[in-house]
Amino acid sequence: MADLLQHLINGLATGTIYALVALGYTMVYGVLKLINFAHGDVMMVGAYLGYAAAQKLGRTAQSSFLGVLLIFLAAMAGCALLGLAIERFAYRPLRAKPRLTSLITAIGISFTLEYGFQLDFGPLPGAAPRAFPEIIKATEWFVIGDGDVVIWNWQVISLLVAVALMLTLQYLVFRTRFGKAMRAVSFDHRIAALMGIPIDRVIAITFMLGSALAAGAGILYAIKDTAIHPLMGLYVGLKAFVAAVIGGIGHVPGAVAGALLLGLVEEFVVGYTASSWRDAVAFGFLIIVLLVRPEGLFGRVSAEKV
Amino acid sequence: MDSAAVRVSSAIPTGLRGLAPFLIAIPILAALQLAVNEMPFLVYIASIVGVNIILAVSLNIVNGMTGQFSIGHAGFMAVGAYIAGKFSLQLRDVAISALPIALSDQILLVAALLIGGSCAALCGFIVGLPSLRLKGDYLAIVTLGFGEIIRVIVQNTEAFGRALGLSGIPQRASFFMVYFWVFLTIVVARRIAASTHGRSLWAIREDEVAAESMGVNTTGYKVRSFVISAFFAGVAGGLFAHFVPIINPGSFTFVKSIELVVMVVAGGLGSTTGSILAAIVLTLLPEAMRSAFIALSGGQASLAQKVDQIRMPIYGILLVLLMLLRPQGLFGNREIWDVLPRWFARRRKGT
């Protein structure tokens, strides 16, 4: 029983991080119908930016409340700029071309970031993992029994941060003028352009928002894993994508639900078999979902119009 | 390549015409085999190039001709490599007594390759049947997932040596055998492209909905091209297993799949010639750069390592630049055997 509860907690904690990354996927897919393969790597860059910011702040400042906030903001701002640059120089020129071209470009960018960060000259960090500074000191927040079930403080904090970011996003998409424009672009970007919506700007801001969320997820993930390395975004990105598909891609609450579900399934499979199966679980789950319900749990079936 | 063969073939009975390229290629390959026999390093490099050509040309059948997007080709290669490797490993000491030992080895190798290729083709069918109903990006992610699942399964299976891999597989893949399969793959790819089957694939690539409304069984053709492609990837993996000292899951990662995608895209989606050329250049270039840097730096290994590191980001940037500047790749849809005869004809006319 205690086992079960502990897996449940760990699964939810992992799921919230997947959720933040999955939201970026789903938003970008919503407006561009593009799988931004580089999204996981933007998350990795976010973690490195957070690391650099923490290094700059020094040992005492980095674990104060203001310091942590500053680290998050710096990483999110940096990644927003990165997302803007990627959109402007790689995706925008290809928007009118077949979708396969953008997909290949996305893979190219992902590859460049992953392996570019592994080079070890100049400002680049090199392939070796680095210990992420303890900006949130890990303490047991809640213990049941003799340490059978432990809820760590970072698990609670990451849950709170994730929920706060999601609520902000939900507000932004459904309650603001910009959100309305975003939904219009997602519905039909040509008609949206005719209605006077600046679609270039809307898409660029969507990319920035998604990248900023990814940066937040990157730091949370780094706190959880206590280490960062250039390939950390690869699997998290893929799994977040899987989560977005499971929830129904383009659907904001669906992405969150899919991510939590995936986090739980993964944790339970790994918990009751062996950790070496971890990377296969998500894809197996994805294939099953695509076979049974290809539009995802919350997605709507849409016929292709010619 | 064999445009000459086509012209000669008018003198050959129709039934035998299909065999003409083989009658020309096999003696040439045998002669080359004799010529390179004493140069093991050259043979090794040439074999790696050959395996990459098979992989790129077979991937081109799915990604180029059919317009689907598979990024899990290394998974099929892994299936072929492990199954064929295991087969040979089990039968290491077996020989067909009626035949000389070298010949019996080669027959067993061909059997291993066919088994490996068939298993890969079966995997292609299993993956293809459900997932080819999905559109582009979903298919990409499913093939990627398939490749990763294969890798994880191999890593968790005792019989396949887990993370350590298989070693001691008899090194039977000769230059002749590798290039015979290269030749076979190219011939098959070429004949598919020129057949009714190939026309249907082009139609699917250009517009799936239109193709379907014209009566093309899109799912059927897509699955078939997937199976053929997977078969040759499996054979390539089998060959690979029979000339490298060890195979382990690290040889068949996502990175390998992407490398192959880069080859196909750089060569031109749909162009077999392009895939061949890109496979040759992108395999030899890093090797050449490495040797050059070692020579320049006076034998320092660290610089050579740098070259190896820098190759990957360059692949990424190459992909992006290609898509931005020349999305059709080097050759586009064209083939050398379509372009050359026309070029010669124009030159003869003197225009």
Give a topology summary.
The complex is a heterodimer of chains A (306) and B (351).
Chain A: H1 2-32, H2 39-57, H3 65-91, H4 99-116, E1 130-131, E2 140-144, E3 149-152, H5 153-175, H6 177-187, H7 189-194, H8 199-225, E4 227-228, H9 232-247, H10 252-272, H11 278-292
Helix pairs in contact in A: 1-5, 1-6, 1-8, 1-9, 1-10, 2-3, 2-8, 2-9, 3-8, 5-6, 5-8, 6-8, 9-10, 9-11, 10-11
Chain B: H1 3-8, H2 14-17, H3 20-36, H4 40-65, H5 73-90, H6 101-131, H7 136-155, E1 166-167, H8 175-194, H9 196-206, H10 208-213, H11 218-241, E2 246-247, H12 254-267, H13 272-296, H14 301-325, H15 336-349
Antiparallel strand pairs in B: 1-2
Notes on the structure:
The complex is a heterodimer of chains A (about 300) and B (about 350). Chain A has about 300 residues and is mainly alpha-helical. Chain A has a single domain, classed as ABC transporter involved in vitamin B12 uptake, BtuC. In chain A, about 70% of the residues lie in helices and about 5% in strands. Chain A has 11 helices and 4 strands. Chain A has helices spanning about 1-30, 40-55, 65-90, 100-115, 155-175, 175-185, 190-195, 200-225, 230-245, 250-270, 280-290, and strands at about 130, 140-145, 150, 225-230. In chain A, strands 1-4 form a two-stranded antiparallel sheet. In chain A, strands 2-3 form a two-stranded antiparallel sheet. In chain A, helix 1 runs antiparallel to helix 8 (about 200-225), helix 1 (about 1-30) packs across helix 9 and helix 2 packs antiparallel against helix 3. Chain B is about 75% helix and about 0% strand. Chain B is built from 15 helices and 2 strands. Chain B is globular, with a radius of gyration of 21 Å. The interface between A and B is large, with 47 and 43 residues.
